[in-house]
Amino acid sequence: MTVKKHALSRRTFLTASSALAAFPLLNSPAARALEPPAAADIRRFNTQNDWVKALDAAFQAADVVDIPAGVVCDNINSGIIVPPGKTLQVSGTLKGNGRGRFALQDGCQIKGHTGKLNNICLDIRGSDCVIDGITMSGYGPLAQIFIGGKDKRTFRNLVINNVTIAEANYGILRQGFHNQFDGVKITNGRFSDLQGDAIEWNVAINDKNILISDHVINNINCTNGKINWGIGIGLAGSTYDNGYPESQAVKNFVVANITGSNCRQLVHVENGKHFIIRNVKATNITPEFSKKAGIDNATVAIYGCDNFIIENIEMVNSAGMLIGYGVIKGNYLSIPQNFRLNEVHMDNTSLPYKLRGIQISSGNAQSFVSITNLNLKRASLELHNKPQHLFIRNIHVVQDADRGPALAMNFDLRKDVRGKFMARDDTLLSLANITAVNEKGQRSVDIDRVDQLRVNASGLNFDLPRR
User: Using 50, 70 and 90 to split pLDDT, how confident is the model at 344?
Assistant: First the structure.
């Protein structure tokens, strides 16, 4: 969360000093030129009772267009191109039928105070755009904020801050195959009662420096039968490839400070590299939501990713994590590799039925996985395959005996075609301070073959075969 400081920067101080020095000359034309342009009241331009024409005329006449409180601009049912550098201030309401949109060019800003947009899409088509303080709703558009286009160029410095989006399909939708966004900050959002994803960053293989942080997400529930709808925050690259090419991955992003409840999946990444997921609090992430969307039930779902960190995750009465392969037409590709999982807490003690705990598939030579500081209650930790080096430290897992082992480690997958991803030569399994028990405190561990491994184990609460 951004903390506003009231101390003057040197630049601000110099500007303020210059204005004060000019005070005796305020009535001169030169002094008046220093004043920011006044906002144009949209009502001045609505001479034909046509708000689309009024907005077009206002943007041609003024740099700042104001929708005052209490004013309702309705029938916004066609596209409006906002010229470069223009600002729309919304304290009133803009309404459409789903076909209306504002196309924001370079330097455009949409700023809300008490402003509301209903069934209108904001379409980002330029650099240095800002959307701040707007409340949006309506099932007419596919997405309330759309970031796409086929213009093959680089866009920079997109800011989406303090938006509230409810009762809609997608909140923010990026279709990123054709162009690049460098420097995106999506912060302080509130998303609720959506059919599609709150934030979907899709096929964004060219983008970089993406921050998605400080969001509250509640009740994402796809009931319209659409496949793959209903995720909190989703990011995806392009085609899975066992070579993990940079050119096909979504990369260089941070997802942080997310509070989510009442959805099927909260955070989702496909074919990603070089990213961080941090500080997630989840409640009631269960299969009761988006039942026909065809997506796994997990608080964090990771598919076919390389080189990432997941840390400080708290889950209560929720499905846990799925870290697994990419799958294309039944072929298992791009097993996760080179990642760290740290500070994960999961408490399903009051959940009446069994949900996924933490299930991890990882592999490949010249790769590592580090799993540290996990505390799981009424849940399981399950590991499949193996990277070349696997480090596990400070793990405490308690699972009911009738729900299976607390800790399952399945290293021998020679009968599974996915076993090709398992490092077999010169591998290291390093374990320390592991407790895996049932509700009675009895050891609850299932280990499938470690005779292929060079084992370094200490401080364990179970018997581990050693070579």
Answer: very high
